[in-house]
Amino acid sequence: MTATLNLLKQPWVWAWVGALGVWGATAAFTGGQGAGEVLRAALTFGAFYVIVALGQMFVVTLGPGNVDLSIPACMTLAGTVAMKTMAGAAAMIPVGLLIALGIGLVVGTVNYALIRLLRIPPIIATLSSSFIYQSAAIWWNRGLRVKPPAALADFTTAKIAGVPVIALCVAVLAVAGHVLLTRTLYGRGVVAIGQNPRAAHLAGVGVERIRAATYILSATLAGLCGYLLAGFSGGAALNMGEEYLLSSIAVVVIGGTSVAGGFANVPGLWGAALFLFLLVTMLNTFGAGAGVRMVLTGLIIIGVIVAASGTRRRT
Amino acid sequence: MKTMTTVACAALLSLGTAAMAPADTSDKRIALSNNYAGNSWRQAMLRSWEKVTGEAVEEGVVAEADAFTTAENQVTEQAAQIQNLILQGYDAIVLNAASPEGLNGAVREACDAGVVVVSFDGIVTEPCAWRIAVDFKQMGKDEVLYLADRLDGGDLLEIRGLAGVFVDDAISAGIHEGVEETGKFEIAGSVHGNWAQDVAQKAVAGILPSLPEIAAVVTQGGDGYGAAQAFKAAGRPMPIIVMGNRHDELTWWKEQKDANGYETMSVSIAPGVSTLAFWVAQQVLDGADVPKDLTVPFLRIDQENLEEALERTEPGGVANVNYTLEDAKEVIGGGAM
């Protein structure tokens, strides 16, 4: 009984409750037909949300005003350059991965340099730099879609015992993120800065070093996501990152991470990612029109966030 | 047939206009005001513009033909851009608009300043501007009519574009009208694919498990390959997926055609429509009598000309046609291309 109550106090529970709820509603509507298939699809597509949301979560946790808006452009640039470099050759897959991660590293460094050296607020800095990354992606390949190597496409779409391999990999990544957040000096530093940067500084936390690492981590994960998504969907497209801007933030917030910073959790990311995908799927299955769907999406997201923040106030 | 009419038209027109061509517009400056460049279709559109107008400038048909794209796809930004182009003294503005009504004020200002405005693809409703419109509704209807020829009936999956954009509503209206008229099909499900392969793939993968067997997928372009991927991943029998002229879609179709005789059709608008708009603007500046509302034909690919179309399409790009002055004259004259 106490255990259940304790569980309900966790802010990430509501995202999972929401995900299970919409999944159940979809299954009930179709009489259980295809419920397993829907879940499998949710795991696949949720994995991509989780990769970028993991980086965004660390950034948001740094405190008010911290957000990475360059994620879509970074994904596009990394995906485009990696696909073109590999040019479909299986032997180049590791090189492509390194290039994608390297681009993320550079993007994160540039973002932080703008924030720190030029003292531009993160929202403006990452938004304006994203124009540069997007333009670089356009310039690099003029919007032409290069196919990924077959082996990479196979890897991103493979399943083990019915579970998508990519979801398993991202689950491991999420566990690593959880350990990073809760068990390392870096992770505790991020939370401390989010709660009070001055107190963190006085307590001996290397505030700027940690902020730099966080923006670089976020961009590197975006680069990884761009690489995998391009492999999964048959090539990089100029608009491939578009919907990951708002959804990366939505997943973080629905997952119970505080938008004001200083309070984060990883399990909620997976719950929220599944929830977002299943929600759209449910409304599609019900045959709701686009307008109704957007209104309901908004209302349900507000509901989950209110439920999650309500529990946080009580604790 | 097409070539013959083109030649005949060109011959007739050259008889009539031989005396005045090509000097009349040689000092004119034309600008392209474009609201978005973030996908392969728009990139191809800009490349076509560059190529065709570059040659036109070199040959002295016009003095300048510069392309300007706004960064944020915002009405206010494009309105400001149009005002700048007026101040810079361009003689004509070729416009792909962010909104059918939102730019009317700026377009009116341009007309009042004596600037010719030719809108295409994203057209404006301001009466003083020319419109090169696409009959998107007919395009949607054509898809269903094609399917009605192929199938006795069945369930359809509809992949729509970007919610809230009039093109999406128009194509979808055409599809629904076609379904009603032929009376053979039922639309079992509808998702928004945002004209992007990965978004379409995600949306289709989500709804597919809840659907009965799908006989065909009606699309809006840029989403067919993603739909095919989703059907394949779910292990479902492959329906007839109407394609949208993208290189990856045509390549997939060709692979299937070679492997198992897969048959479908592909329809979209050639990004080179920007060059048609360029020639129309040139004709207006030249003093030609051009009706305000023109219609641009679709670019349709069928089983027979798939290989040929695929060969002409740049890997990773969109099937395209660059229009010529003769094509423009034909469209102005109301002839079918």
Write up what this structure looks like:
The complex is a heterodimer of chains A (315) and B (337). Chain A is mostly helical. Chain A has one domain (8-314): ABC transporter involved in vitamin B12 uptake, BtuC (Orthogonal Bundle), CATH 1.10.3470. Chain A has 14 helices and 2 strands, in the order αααααααββααααααα. Chain A has helices at 2-9, 13-29, 35-61, 71-86, 93-116, 122-141, 150-157, 165-183, 185-195, 197-202, 207-232, 244-254, 267-286, 290-314, and strands spanning 159-160, 163-164. In chain A, strand 1 (159-160) and strand 2 form a beta hairpin. In chain A, helix 2 runs antiparallel to helix 14 (290-314), helix 5 (93-116) runs antiparallel to helix 6 and helix 8 (165-183) crosses helix 9. The two termini of chain A are 17 Å apart. With 337 residues, chain B is of the alpha/beta class. Chain B folds into 2 domains: 2-135 and 270-300 and 319-332, 3-Layer(aba) Sandwich (Rossmann fold); 136-268, Rossmann fold (3-Layer(aba) Sandwich). Chain B has 12 helices and 12 strands. Chain B has a 6-stranded parallel β-sheet, sandwiched between helices. In chain B, strand 8, helix 8 and strand 9 (240-241) form a beta-alpha-beta unit. In chain B, helix 5 runs parallel beside helix 6. Chain B is elongated. The relative contact order of chain B is 0.14. The model of chain B is unreliable at 1-23 (pLDDT under 50). The A-B interface holds A 26, 29-30, 33-38, 41-42, 44-45, 131, 134, 138, 141-147, 157, 229, 232-235, 237-240, 242-243, 277-278, 280-281, 284-285, 287, 290-291, 293-294 and B 37-40, 42-44, 47, 71, 160, 163-164, 189-192, 194, 196-199, 201-203, 205-211, 225-226, 229, 233-234, 246-248, 314-317.
